[in-house]
Design a protein that fits this description.
This protein is an alpha+beta fold and 366 residues long.
Length: 366
């Protein structure tokens, strides 16, 4: 069943707002172009109405912090299943885009700006050309889906294709029009599927996931891992792209933690589902203490603590074995990924876990 939207005016007798329509798909496209946050705070638009080699036109093209692309198709009204077929056709073209072609697309869209420079400004990190367009997502923006289209999108997701639908609805409130939105599938699932596609493209064919989660713990201060090791947690934040994949973790899951640029430092099991920074506590001297009062350097975590999209999220971990960052294990051929959490389906991940189990000999303790 498609996502249903409704808005009421608050009062002694709540009144529902009536639904209406936008004048055109172009109006929706203009709105998103001016404020991409309507789709996601974590994406940077790099192309608009880009013509494919076969004469089609992609409504919008975006890039994520790890260099993967997002193909966005806008449909104002009911969406037939042919739209999904069209998006898949466009996605095949996107998958073949080279680094220089992507740079040219962005130059046209931005009137001559440099993709690498704007990427660095937007995401505060360097664009890794080796990682550029190793994976992609498909997003259909629509007011509703017919049942056939919804079944197709659900099936493709179950098979690991990174496709999602962002439902929108327009409401009339006096002279104003209000826009609401809701995702058909949790965005972290689509991000995870895109990550798996990238792994396969980079490291050979896919294989069944081995049930072991990869975790990247980076940023903030060098003391973060010391705190995580002693207090029992992993975390991610600064935007939903960095925090939402933590929702993939459930109690009992095993994780292998890597500090980017250093190596693997720990293995443990998840004890509780993810919690925002303002709700996460740790036990110190027999009492529960807010994580914000327990961290060695809490200031970066306080900055956006009240913003549900930008704040940090924490997952409680029981470490089977954890070592100091100075002793991190790394060697040629080990798996790496920029997503905070992912479920790799590449032989490289299987090889990595096999190697890690020879170094972390207490990996199955607890």
């Amino acid at each position: 069943m498609s996502i249903q939207h409704a808005i009421w005016c608050v009062g002694d007798e709540p009144k529902p707002l009536t639904t209406t329509r936008l004048a055109s798909e172009q109006q929706l496209e203009e709105m998103i172009s001016k404020m991409p946050e309507i789709l996601s705070r974590e994406w940077m638009l790099i192309g608009r109405q880009e013509r494919t080699d076969d004469g089609g036109r992609i409504d919008l093209l975006a890039i994520t912090p790890d260099g993967s692309l997002v193909l966005i198709e806008l449909k104002r009204d009911r969406t037939p299943r042919e739209v999904v077929a069209q998006a898949l056709d466009y996605a095949e073209w996107v998958s073949r885009l080279t680094e220089d072609r992507i740079a040219q697309i962005f130059a046209r869209y931005s009137k001559g700006k440099s993709l690498s420079e704007e990427f660095s400004k937007r995401f505060r990190t360097t664009l890794d050309e080796e990682a550029l367009n190793k994976s992609h997502q498909i997003v259909v923006v629509a007011s509703e889906l017919d049942p056939s289209t919804e079944r197709i999108v659900s099936y493709l997701n179950a098979k690991g294709i990174a496709i999602n639908v962002l439902f929108f609805q327009v409401f009339q409130h006096g002279q104003e029009l209000l826009l609401s939105r809701a995702w058909m599938i949790a965005p972290e699932m689509t991000q995870a599927n895109a990550s798996q596609i990238g792994d396969a493209n980079s490291n050979g064919p896919k294989e069944p996931w081995n049930g072991e989660f990869y975790v990247s713990l980076g940023g903030y201060h060098e003391s973060l891992w010391r705190d995580a090791k002693s207090l029992g947690f992993i975390c991610g934040g600064g935007g939903l792209w960095y925090s939402q994949t933590l929702k993939l973790l459930q109690p009992g899951d095993r994780i292998w933690v890597k500090i980017p640029g250093k190596g693997f430092v720990g293995v443990g099991k998840v004890l509780e589902p993810v919690q925002p920074v303002t709700q996460f506590t740790v036990s110190i001297n027999g009492g529960d203490v807010s994580i914000l009062d327990a961290l060695t350097h809490p200031d970066p975590f306080r900055t956006n603590a009240d913003d549900p999209e930008k704040c940090d999220y924490f997952v409680r971990i029981q470490w089977s074995e954890a070592i100091d960052a100075s002793e991190a294990f790394d060697e040629l051929g080990l798996f790496g990924n920029q997503n905070t959490v992912c479920r790799p389906t590449t032989p490289k991940w299987r090889h990595t876990v096999e190697r890690l189990k020879t170094k972390f000999t207490d990996w199955d303790r607890g």
